[in-house]
């Protein structure tokens, strides 16, 4: 479809990404295969320099912005963490200042990581939507360049990880993809189209942030409340228009996972691979575990799309064996 970049555009974006970082690995871990009863390939986006897939999009967006608007020196955007890290990393490479708006009570360790990249961190509001609206106001007031959560350059950069996975494992039957603001799943659709694959795409949202699932099923944009305490990267209250249109036309279905299911997936990833996943980073595996009975004989792709979880929260999850009884404690 026309909203998706071409293979030529994706290849060009990948070269920008690889000037700053190498391709990330994909592994088929025996204990994950055993848990799901099929062949599973984990794409390790937790191995990027910022610990999440978002870095790729930030690199491409800021690189292209520097080419077309070389006088821009101040960037502003909203985030729960990983998008802000990507913008901060890219801004530093181009001598720009990144002003990033986060909600009050945001991850302390993501906040610290952004500040370490030279980000001017601004705490405002209670959720991502509040932050996005405030960032837009700051952009207008100060004549800063506003970076959206979804843009063709962001999508093209993020697609480089899907191109890597699909090139390494072109016969994947199905992939599970978390949905925050949509760049990850739209990038998967772009890579699938560019390579002419038939892989089914299943989107994954938090059961405590159902905006994209409700919108997908209704065929129109629907706002939904956000109450997830663990998968902050999926804490979307209002879907992005472009993302939703792409999703409507390319995704096979969308499923929801609870914080308890996400916590279980985070623990399984650590026990089986000794990789740390944040809540949104483990959501795809949580969804695959829901579908275990229907995955027999299939080849499955699952991104571990981010590992930026606060140490205290992760230690609680690793120590909580009975998730159903410890749900409140795990997600606090």
What descriptors fit this protein?
about 325 residues; alpha/beta; Rossmann fold; 2 domains; four-stranded parallel β-sheet; about 50% helix; about 15% strand; globular; disordered C terminus; pyridoxal phosphate; threonine deaminase activity; Threonine dehydratase; Ser/Thr_Dehydratase; L-serine ammonia-lyase activity
Compact overview of the structure:
By secondary structure, the protein is α/β, with parallel strands linked by helices.
Number of strands: 10
The CATH architecture of the largest domain would be 3-Layer(aba) Sandwich
Which fold does the CATH topology of the largest domain refer to? Rossmann fold
Order of helices and strands: HEHEHEHEHEHEHEHEHHEHHEHH
Sheet with most strands: strand arrangement? 1-2-10-7-8-9
- Would you tell me the overall average pLDDT? 94
Shape: globular
Sheet having the most strands: 6 strands, mixed
User: Low-confidence segments, ≥5 residues, pLDDT <50?
Assistant: 323-332
Helix amount:
40-55%
Instruction: Report how far the terminal alpha carbons are from each other.
Output: 42 Å
Number of helices: 14
How many separate structural domains? 2
Which structural class should the secondary elements be placed in? alpha/beta
- CATH C-level name of the largest domain: Alpha Beta
Characterization of this structure:
The chain has 332 residues and is of the alpha/beta class. The chain folds into two domains: 7-53 and 152-330, Rossmann fold, CATH 3.40.50; 54-146, 3-Layer(aba) Sandwich (Rossmann fold), CATH 3.40.50.1100. Helices cover 49% and strands 14% of the residues. The chain has a six-stranded mixed sheet, with helices on both faces. Helix 7 (152-168) packs across helix 8 (183-195) and helix 8 packs across helix 10. The radius of gyration is 18 Å and the shape is globular. InterPro entries: Ser/Thr_Dehydratase, TrpB-like_PALP, TrpB-like_PALP_sf. GO terms for molecular function: L-serine ammonia-lyase activity; threonine deaminase activity. Keywords: Lyase, Pyridoxal phosphate. It comes from Solimicrobium silvestre.
């Amino acid at each position: 479809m026309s909203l998706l970049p071409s293979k030529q555009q994706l290849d060009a974006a990948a070269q920008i990404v690889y000037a700053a970082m190498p391709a990330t690995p994909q592994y088929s871990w025996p204990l994950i295969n055993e848990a799901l009863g099929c062949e599973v390939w984990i794409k390790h986006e937790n191995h990027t320099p910022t610990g999440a897939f978002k870095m790729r999009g930030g690199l491409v967006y800021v690189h292209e912005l520097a080419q077309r608007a070389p006088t821009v020196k101040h960037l502003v955007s909203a985030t729960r963490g990983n998008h802000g890290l990507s913008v901060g990393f890219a801004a530093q490479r181009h001598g720009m200042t990144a002003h990033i708006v986060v909600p009050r009570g945001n991850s302390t360790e993501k906040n610290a990581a952004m500040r370490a990249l030279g980000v001017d961190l601004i705490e405002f509001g209670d959720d991502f939507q509040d932050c996005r609206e405030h960032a837009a106001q700051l952009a207008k007031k100060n004549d800063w360049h506003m970076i959206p959560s979804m843009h063709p350059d962001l999508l093209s950069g993020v697609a480089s990880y899907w191109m890597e996975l699909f090139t390494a494992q072109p016969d994947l039957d199905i992939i599970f993809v978390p949905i925050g603001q949509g760049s990850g799943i739209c990038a998967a659709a772009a890579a699938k189209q560019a390579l002419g694959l038939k892989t089914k795409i299943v989107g994954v949202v938090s059961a405590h942030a159902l905006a994209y699932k409700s919108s997908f099923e209704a065929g129109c944009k629907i706002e939904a409340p956000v109450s997830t305490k663990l998968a902050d990267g999926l804490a979307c209250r209002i879907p992005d228009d472009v993302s939703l249109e792409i999703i409507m036309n390319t995704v096979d279905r969308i499923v929801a996972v609870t914080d308890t299911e996400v916590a279980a997936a985070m623990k399984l990833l650590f026990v089986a691979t000794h990789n740390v996943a944040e809540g949104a980073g483990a959501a795809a595996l949580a969804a695959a575990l829901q579908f275990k009975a229907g995955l027999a004989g299939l080849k499955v792709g699952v991104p571990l799309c981010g590992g930026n979880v606060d140490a205290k929260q992760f230690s609680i999850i690793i120590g909580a064996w009975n998730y159903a009884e410890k749900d409140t404690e795990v997600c606090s």
